[in-house]
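Write out this protein's structure.
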Amino acid sequence: MTRAQSPTIDLSKAEEWLLSSQVKAIFKFSDMALWRWLDDEELGFPKPIKVMGRNYWRQCDIAAFQERMIKEAMNSRKK
């Protein structure tokens, strides 16, 4: 009798997760500014995933947010 193989994780497709300190460093702001961005529903800042009391953001969500903010800024300049 053979054992069933357990599923494996393809690490090449693994997502990168960022801590609060890394997110704050990317945007160069404080704890309070991060809290305000999270509290502002209209801004649409990505919500973190909480694991054992720590907040984590998917790097791709932060990158998408940055891209959206840049596009909005560029569009508002054209007006």
